[in-house]
Amino acid sequence: YLDEVRSQFNQIQLDMMRENIPLTADSLKEYYRTGGIKQFTIEDAFREYQKLLAKRVDVDLTYAAYKKYTAAFNCFFKFVDKKQQLTTITPATIEGFLVDCNTKYTQSTVCGIMTRIKTVLQYQRDNNRLSINPFINVKYGRGKKDIEYLTETELDTLYNLNIENKSLAD
Fold it and tell me: Hey, which of 94-98, 128-132, 138-142 has the most confident mean pLDDT?
């Protein structure tokens, strides 16, 4: 019986390697018990992280930050097929997404989107759902924004403005 189980585990290990499923003790055990591993899709990964973020709203995360993550996820879902396996995300996918974003958004917006996507993928990598870091060698920068200074008349208007709220007036 033990030889048969050992043979089954060897076969499972080969199957998992062929399917690019990260090989861990937990994934091996799940595969053996259930006869396979539920395919973890890109959408599953992002929705799982979104649920974690929802629990953090008003604790250590603002609702506005939560909405920014949602917007970044939707932007990413327009670029990739969200029903594909999470393991199909490669550095080439991320590089293509970066190029696509650069044609649509300003540099600071692109940086925000990429940072949020990277956070989710790093979380999935930390939980052994991704074997490689898709952001390896992908460079994106914050970019430079032009600073617009107030004119003398705008400063005078602010200085002479009568504000009734004491905390705002100080």
Answer: 94-98
